[in-house]
């Protein structure tokens, strides 16, 4: 399944502790900092988002949000999409939704292949499937999907 970001902005709502603006270097151009790694990156506000970037009311109301996040229409968008850090581009919040054989949603899997579930049977199956494997392996996502489907789960 191809991951489709619906631009809900939830993943960036608490990124203010992790993405900072170091300084402005030109109109709409900044040096940003990924706090966890100490890495600096060039951030340029996308041309079609400059107007919303200048509007700071929403940011003031959400001080923990990434400083580059802004609402637009019914969505919340990254205003530096073209130059956002690599970890932002690679992020996928949910890559699998897991349904039981009865059709109930019993778990979700993040892009980092972390299972989010309160279902003990699924948890036990997951631990068996992933025991002793590197979750960052190249075909791991497909392998897990196949194994879950073999146990009767439906994955979307
Ligand atoms: S990656 Fe997921 S949480 Fe983040 S904006 Fe897209 S859909 Fe929302
Ligand atoms: S730079 Fe963009 S994608 Fe990355 S946390 Fe900020 S708003 Fe989200």
- First CA to last CA: what distance? 7 Å
Q: What is the CA-atom radius of gyration, in angstroms?
A: 19 Å
Number of strands: 9
Largest sheet: 4 strands, antiparallel
Q: Give the low-confidence spans.
A: none
**Mean of pLDDT:** 92
Number of helices: 5
What coarse outline follows from CA principal-axis ratios?
elongated
Q: Bound small molecules, which ones?
A: iron/sulfur cluster
Estimate the strand proportion.
Answer: 25-35%
Return the string of H and E elements.
Answer: EEEHHEEHEEEHHE
Q: Which class of secondary structure composition applies to the elements?
A: alpha+beta
Counting copies of identical and different chains, the oligomeric state is: single chain
Helix amount: 10-25%
Number of domains: 2
Strand order of the largest sheet: 8-7-6-9
What features would you describe in this structure?
The chain is α+β, with helices and mostly antiparallel strands and 156 residues long. The chain folds into two domains: 81 residues, no CATH class; 60 residues, no CATH class. The chain has five helices and nine strands, in the order E-E-E-H-H-E-E-H-E-E-E-H-H-E. A hairpin with a 4-residue loop joins strand 2 and strand 3. The longest helix has 11 residues. It is elongated, with a radius of gyration of 19 Å. The termini are close together. It binds iron/sulfur cluster (2 copies). The site of one iron/sulfur cluster has 9 residues, from loops.
What are its keywords?
single chain, 156 residues, alpha+beta, four-stranded antiparallel sheet, three-stranded antiparallel sheet, 9 strands, 24% helix, binds iron/sulfur cluster
